[in-house]
Write a structure and sequence with these properties.
- The complex is a heterotrimer of chains A (about 280), B (about 325) and C (about 475).
- Chain A is an all-alpha fold and about 280 residues long.
- Chain A contains 10 helices and 2 strands.
- Chain B has about 325 residues and is an alpha/beta fold.
- Chain B folds into 2 domains: about 190 residues, no CATH class; about 110 residues, no CATH class.
- In chain B, the strands form 3 sheets. In chain B, strands 1, 2, 3, 4, 5, 6, 8 and 9 form an 8-stranded mixed sheet that branches.
- The chains are: A mainly alpha (about 280), B alpha/beta (about 325), C alpha+beta (about 475).
- Chains in contact: A-B, A-C, B-C.
- At the A-B interface, helix 4 and helix 9 of A face helix 1 and helix 8 of B.
C-alpha cells in the first residue's frame, strides 16, 4: 500500500467497459419518453463532437503536461480531475445501489463497497486490463442472449409511429471525465482508439433506445421504464432473464468502481507530487 | 502485538461489521404468484392470486406444490391487491407471475389501472401475457373451494394459451384477447376472441380470430375450417407490401403433414377471409398489419400517416401453401 | 568452513564426536604403503561389498612402487592421480564436504599426514523404484514417474532430452538438513534473466526444512495471501521434459518426486499428457468439459443458493418447488445447509486420503450411510443440496491441480451468495477474476489469452502445433 502506484495506463477497452455500463444504466433508469429519432439526431453529432474535443484536449494537455504533477497548473489540473472522478465514483456507487435495491431488494452493494475500493486502490492497471477482456466476453454473450430472447418481439413497424413527437436529449448524461483525461489514463499509442469512446457510449445508449422503440413503439404521454426492455426477454422454457443481464451489468459497474478508485489514487499521488513509476508505452 | 497489527485487526473488525450491517439471509419460503386476476366493478376492485406454495418434504421426490387461489377486495387496485396478499400463507413473490386475467366486464378500466402498477413494481413486468376471463373473482373462488384441482386447470389453460395471448405492452396497438370461460364446469378457451382498441371492445368470429392471430403472428399452429374441411397450418410467413393506393399481403403457409392440401377455392376463401379480417380490425380501430408504417416506409414524408381514422385501404391477400 | 586436519587421529576424533553415537556410522582403520589411514562411511548408504570389490580390482592392477616410506601426502597423490582406483576426481578438503559426501552415500579414505581425503562412489542407497505416479493418471504415453532420489530423477530427464540443451544445476539448499535441489532448464529456450532471478532467489532462500519443491514458493512469490499459485507440479518425467522444451524452469528436490514447473499459465491446468496423444477434436472436447467442470465446481453451489432464494424465475418451476419443499423440511437455511454439506464432504475426502487402507471400506460405508441416507431420513439435509454438493465435489477432480483454490472459492461463493444474494455472487465472481488476473510470475501473466491460441481451449492438429513451437516467454508482457 505504501508503494507508489505504477501508471502504465489503462487499455481503452478497460475504460470503455465502465462507460458502457454507466451509459446502459442511464438508459434503463430513465422513465421519460425519448424517441429513437430524437436520440439519433441529438446524440450522434454530440458524440462526434465529444470525440473531436477529446482528441484536441488530449493533444493540448499533453503539450502542457497537465497531468505531470509538476507545477501549480498541473497540480490544479490533477485536483480538478480528481474531484470530477470522485463525483463520478459517487454517482456510480449510487446508481449501482439504486439498481440493487429496486431490482433485488438488497443493500449488499454498500457492504461490498469497501472491498471494491480497496481492490481498486491496490491492484495494478494490468489486472484491470486483463479482467476487462474476460468481462467483455461475458458482455458479448449477454448481448447475444438478449438479442435472441427479444428477436421475436422486435418489429420494425414500431419505428414509424402515427405521430412523431420530438423529444430532447439529456446531454448531461453523456459527459464522463474519462473523455478529458486520456493523456493520463491511456498510453499514447492507445489514444487513437480511446478518442472514440464517446461514440461507443452513444452506440450503447442508441442500441438500447432503438431496442425500446422496436419493442414498445411510440407511446403517447409518459415513457416506459428502461427495465421493461430487459424484462420482456423470453426464450423457450425460460420466461425471464433480466436478472442475469442485470448481474452482468452489476459486475461491470463494480469493475468501474474499482477502476475509478484506482484513477483517484493515481491522481492523488500526482497531486501530492509523489513520483509515480511510469512505464513507457 | 505491535501497534500496526492491532490497528490492522481493528480495521478488519470494522470492515466485517460494516459488511454485516447490510447483509441478510433469506429463504425460499415464499408464495410464488403465477397469475393475477383483476376485476373492476362499479363499487370496488376484486383481485385474485393464483399461487403455489410447496409443502415440506425432505425427500424431494415427495414434493408437491399444488396451485391455489386466494382473493381480496378493495376500493382501489392497490388495496385489493394488498387484501389478496394477506391471504397468502407466506410473503408473495411475483417473479414468476406471467399471466394477467382481466374480467370481460370492464377490460379498458382494468388495463388502464394495471399498467402503472406493473411499471412500478420491479417483480412484475409489462411482458406479462394478458387473457380475458368471463367468470368473476367470486365465482372462481367458489369454484376453487369446490374443486381442488380447479386453480391448477386455470393455470394450465393460461400456459396452453400463452402464445396466443398478447403482451400487456401491446395495449397501444389493440389487444386480441383470448377469452377463458367456465363451460359445463370446466375451464375452456372460447373460440371467439375479443379485440380491445381505443374505440371499444369487439368480438371477432371464430374464423376472424384465427386469421387475426395469423396476421399478428401469435402462435405457430392454426386451424381453419374452410368448406367444412379443417386445414391445419403448421407455420406461416407474412409479407406486406404497399401497392399503389392499397396493399398486398402475402401469406405463405406450411400445412401440417396429416392435413389435406387446400384447393384453389379454399385458398381464395382464405384470401377473402384475410382481407375481411383486416377490414374488420381496421374498423374496430386496430391496424393489425401496421399498414400505416408500411406506407410511411415506402412514401416517407410525402403523404400523411395512414391511421385507422382514414378509410381502410384496399388489401389484396395472396395465400400460398408450401409442400 | 573447518578444514580437515593432517592428523588422522584428530579427524577420527572429530568424526567420532559428530557421528560416533549413530549406529550406521562405520569407521575402519587401514594401512596403505605403511601409511595409516581410515575408511569412513555410513552403513546402508555406502556398500561395503562394492567398496571391497573396488579395492580388490585396484589391487590387481599394476601400481607404481614407492621407494621409501611415504608420507600421507605422497600416498594420497599416488592413489588419486597414479593408480587405477576409481576415486572421485575432486578430493575432500573440508569437514562440510566430508559430511556432504558421506551423507550422499560415498566412502571416504582419510590418510595420516594428509589434510585431504579421497572419496569413492560406492552408493547403495535404498529408494522407491520408478513407478507410475498415482496422482496423474493417463491412458497413453509414458507411465514412468519420478522417484524420491534426485540423481535418479535427473537421469530420467536426461534420457528424454538427449541434447546439450538440457542443463541440470545441483545445489545444496541453505537449510538445516542441507538438502540438495536441482534447477533444470533448456539453455536455448529459457529466459536468461528469469533464470538468473530464480537461481538467486533459491540460493538466498532459507527454509527451515526442504522436503519438497513447493517449500520454495513463498520465496519465489512472496505474497501475504494467494489463491492461485503460478507454478505447477508434476511427477511425470515426460511432462517435465515437455515443459522444459517450452522454455520453463523445473526445480527438483532430493527426497521428493514432485517437480515444480515455473512459470505456469492458468490454461495449462486444463491440459494433460493424453491431450496430444488423442485427436484434436476429442482433446478439445475434453478441455471444454474441464473448463466447464472447474467453473461449475466453484459457482454451482453459490448460484444454486442464489437462484433458489433470490431469483426463482431462473429455475424451472417444478425444480424450484422441490428445492423449496426440501428447504422447508430441514432446520437450516439453504446456504447454511450447503456450507455444512461441503465441509462434511471435505472431511470425508481428507479422511479417505489419510486413513489406512484396511479401514477404507468401513469408513466409506459409514460416510455413505450417514450422509447419504440417515441425514435425509432424519430431515437434517435435503436431496437437492446433497446432489449439487456431490456433483461439485466430483467435478473438481477433473482438474486436480486446481483443487485447493476451487475448494476455498466454492465456500467463499456460497457464503457470499447466501448472505448477500445476487450482489454477493457477482462480487465473488469479480473477486475470482481479480484473483486470477492478479497473478503474474517472471513477467508472464497467469491468465492471458493463451486460452484462445491454437493450443488453448481448442487444440489444433499436432502437426500445425509443431510448425509453430510455443515457448512460455512469448506470453511475457513487454517491459
Amino acid at each position: 500500500m505504501n508503494q507508489p502506484a505504477v501508471n502504465g495506463g489503462f487499455a481503452p477497452q478497460t475504460l470503455f467497459l465502465g462507460l458502457a455500463a454507466s451509459s446502459l444504466a442511464s438508459s434503463f433508469l430513465k422513465t421519460e419518453e425519448l424517441s429513437a429519432r430524437s436520440f439519433l439526431l441529438w446524440g450522434l453529432p454530440a458524440a462526434l463532437g465529444l470525440c473531436l474535443l477529446s482528441a484536441l484536449l488530449a493533444a493540448e494537455f499533453q503539450a502542457r503536461e497537465l497531468f505531470s504533477g509538476k507545477g501549480v497548473f498541473s497540480r490544479l489540473g490533477c485536483g480538478v480531475s480528481g474531484l470530477w472522478f470522485a463525483v463520478e465514483l459517487i454517482r456510480t456507487v449510487r446508481t449501482a445501489q439504486e439498481v440493487c435495491w429496486s431490482q433485488f431488494s438488497s443493500m449488499a452493494a454498500l457492504s461490498v463497497l469497501p472491498l471494491l475500493l480497496w481492490a481498486g486502490w491496490a491492484l495494478p492497471e494490468a489486472v484491470f486490463d486483463r479482467s476487462s477482456r474476460v468481462l467483455w466476453w461475458l458482455a458479448g454473450l449477454g448481448a447475444l442472449l438478449c438479442a435472441a430472447g427479444l428477436a421475436g418481439q422486435l418489429h420494425w413497424q414500431n419505428l414509424f409511429p402515427a405521430s412523431y413527437r420530438f423529444t430532447g436529449a439529456d446531454l448531461g448524461q453523456i459527459l464522463y471525465p474519462e473523455y478529458f483525461a486520456l493523456t493520463f489514463l491511456c498510453p499514447q499509442r492507445q489514444w487513437r482508439k480511446a478518442v472514440w469512446m464517446p461514440l461507443g457510449s452513444f452506440g450503447v445508449q442508441a442500441a438500447f433506445c432503438f431496442g425500446m422503440a422496436l419493442l414498445f413503439g411510440a407511446r403517447q404521454g409518459s415513457g416506459l421504464p428502461g427495465y421493461e426492455l430487459l424484462r420482456s426477454w423470453t426464450l423457450g422454457a425460460f420466461s425471464r432473464f433480466d436478472a442475469v443481464f442485470l448481474l452482468l451489468w452489476l459486475a461491470a459497474m463494480f469493475f468501474r468502481i474499482c477502476v475509478l478508485a484506482h484513477i483517484l489514487r493515481l491522481l492523488w499521488e500526482k497531486f501530492r507530487g509523489r513520483s509515480v513509476c511510469e512505464v513507457s508505452p | 502485538m505491535s501497534r500496526r497489527a492491532t490497528l490492522r485487526l481493528l480495521l478488519l473488525g470494522l470492515l466485517l461489521c460494516w459488511c454485516g450491517v447490510f447483509l441478510r439471509s433469506e429463504n425460499t419460503e415464499k408464495s410464488i404468484v403465477r397469475a393475477l386476476l383483476l376485476e373492476q366493478t362499479p363499487e370496488q376492485w376484486n383481485v385474485a392470486l393464483l399461487y403455489q406454495f410447496p409443502e415440506a418434504a425432505a425427500d424431494s421426490s415427495d414434493a408437491a406444490a399444488s396451485v391455489q387461489l386466494c382473493a381480496g377486495t378493495g376500493k382501489t387496485l392497490e388495496q385489493a391487491l394488498f387484501a389478496a396478499e394477506e391471504h397468502l400463507p407466506q410473503r408473495p413473490s411475483y417473479r414468476l407471475c406471467e399471466y394477467l386475467f382481466l374480467n370481460t366486464g370492464s377490460l379498458r378500466g382494468e388495463l388502464s389501472a394495471c399498467e402503472p402498477l406493473f411499471c412500478e413494481r420491479a417483480d412484475l413486468r409489462l411482458a406479462t401475457r394478458v387473457l380475458a376471463v368471463t367468470p368473476g373473482c367470486e365465482e372462481l373462488l367458489a369454484r376453487a373451494e369446490e374443486e381442488e384441482r380447479f386453480p391448477e386447470q386455470l393455470l394450465q389453460c393460461a400456459k396452453d394459451t400463452a402464445e396466443r395471448a398478447p403482451h400487456l405492452y401491446e395495449r397501444g396497438k389493440g389487444l386480441l384477447l383470448p377469452v377463458v370461460q367456465l363451460k359445463e364446469g370446466s375451464i375452456t378457451l372460447q373460440k371467439e376472441a375479443l379485440l380491445l382498441t381505443e374505440t371499444g371492445t369487439f368480438s371477432l368470429t371464430e374464423e376472424e380470430t384465427e386469421m387475426a392471430r395469423v396476421l399478428l403472428e401469435y402462435g405457430q399452429e392454426h386451424t381453419f375450417t374452410v368448406e367444412e374441411t379443417p386445414i391445419t397450418i403448421r407455420r406461416s410467413v407474412l409479407g406486406v407490401q404497399a401497392a399503389g393506393d392499397g396493399f398486398t399481403v402475402q401469406l405463405t403457409f406450411q400445412k401440417k403433414a396429416a392435413s389435406a392440401t387446400p384447393t384453389e377455392t379454399q385458398c381464395q376463401k382464405l384470401e377473402t377471409l384475410c382481407a375481411e379480417t383486416v377490414q374488420r380490425c381496421w374498423d374496430a380501430g386496430a391496424d393489425i398489419l401496421s399498414l400505416g408504417s408500411v406506407r410511411a416506409l415506402q412514401d416517407g414524408q410525402k403523404t400523411a400517416f395512414l391511421t385507422e381514422k382514414n378509410a381502410c385501404p384496399a388489401v389484396q391477400a395472396d395465400v400460398i401453401f408450401l409442400g | 568452513m573447518p578444514q580437515l586436519s593432517p592428523k588422522l587421529t584428530e579427524n577420527l576424533a572429530l568424526l567420532d564426536e559428530m557421528f560416533g553415537s549413530s549406529a550406521d556410522f562405520y569407521s575402519k582403520e587401514v594401512e596403505l604403503y605403511h601409511c595409516r589411514g581410515a575408511l569412513v562411511l555410513f552403513d546402508g548408504m555406502a556398500s561395503l561389498e562394492s567398496l571391497w570389490e573396488l579395492l580388490l580390482d585396484a589391487v590387481s592392477r599394476r601400481t607404481p612402487a614407492l621407494d621409501e616410506t611415504p608420507g600421507g601426502s605422497a600416498v594420497f597423490d599416488l592413489l588419486l592421480h597414479h593408480s587405477g582406483l576409481p576415486a572421485e576426481s575432486s578430493p575432500v578438503e573440508t569437514l562440510d564436504d566430508l559430511t556432504r559426501r558421506l551423507t550422499a552415500g560415498m566412502a571416504v579414505l582419510l590418510l595420516d599426514g594428509c589434510a585431504q581425503g579421497i572419496a569413492f562412489s560406492v552408493q547403495s542407497l535404498k529408494f522407491r523404484s520408478v513407478e507410475e505416479p498415482p496422482g496423474e493418471g493417463n491412458l497413453r504415453g509414458s507411465r514412468e514417474g519420478f522417484a524420491d532420489l534426485l540423481r535418479v530423477n535427473l537421469s530420467l530427464l536426461r534420457r528424454l532430452i538427449r541434447t546439450e540443451q538440457l542443463v541440470q544445476e545441483v545445489t545444496q539448499a541453505d537449510c538445516e538438513m542441507k538438502t540438495e535441489y536441482a534447477l533444470c532448464y533448456c539453455k536455448g529456450k529459457v529466459s536468461p534473466g528469469a533464470l538468473a532471478q530464480v537461481r538467486k532467489i533459491l540460493a538466498q532462500a532459507k527454509p527451515e526444512l526442504l522436503l519438497d519443491s513447493s517449500y520454495f514458493v513463498p520465496w519465489l512469490f512472496p505474497c501475504r495471501f494467494r489463491l492461485f499459485s503460478p507454478v505447477s507440479y508434476t511427477e511425470r518425467p515426460a511432462v517435465a521434459a515437455a515443459k522444459l522444451c517450452e522454455g520453463k524452469i523445473i526445480v527438483l528436490v532430493n527426497g521428493s518426486p514432485s517437480a515444480m514447473i515455473l512459470p505456469t499459465l492458468f490454461c495449462e491446468n486444463f491440459d494433460c499428457l493424453d491431450d496430444y496423444a488423442t485427436t484434436a477434436f476429442f482433446s478439445s472436447f475434453l478441455r471444454i468439459l474441464k473448463y466447464g467442470a472447474f467453473y461449475l465446481s466453484i459457482f454451482l453451489p453459490g448460484a444454486f443458493v442464489c437462484t433458489a432464494v433470490y431469483l426463482p424465475e431462473l429455475l424451472p418451476p417444478i425444480l424450484l418447488f422441490k428445492i423449496a419443499a426440501a428447504e422447508k423440511a430441514t432446520p437450516l437455511p439453504l446456504f447454511a445447509e450447503m456450507v455444512m454439506i461441503i465441509l462434511i464432504l471435505e472431511i470425508i475426502r481428507e479422511a479417505g486420503l489419510r486413513m489406512p487402507q484396511t479401514l477404507g471400506h468401513s469408513v466409506s460405508l459409514v460416510a455413505a450411510l450417514i450422509v447419504g441416507d440417515a441425514a435425509i431420513a432424519a430431515g437434517l439435509m435435503s436431496t437437492p443440496v446433497l446432489l449439487v454438493a456431490g456433483i461439485t465435489s466430483v467435478a473438481i477432480f477433473i482438474t486436480p491441480s486446481l483443487y485447493e483454490p476451487a475448494t476455498l472459492l466454492r465456500l467463499l461463493v456460497v457464503l457470499a451468495a447466501g448472505l448477500a444474494g445476487p450482489v454477493g455472487l457477482v462480487s465473488a465472481g469479480l473477486f475470482v477474476l481479480f484473483g486470477l488476473t492478479q497473478v503474474s510470475t517472471l513477467g508472464v501473466p497467469y491468465l492471458n489469452d493463451s486460452s484462445f491460441s491454437s493450443d488453448g481451449v481448442i487444440r489444433r492438429n499436432y502437426r500445425v502445433l509443431s510448425s509453430n513451437p510455443f515457448t512460455i516467454w512469448q506470453r511475457r508482457k513487454p517491459e
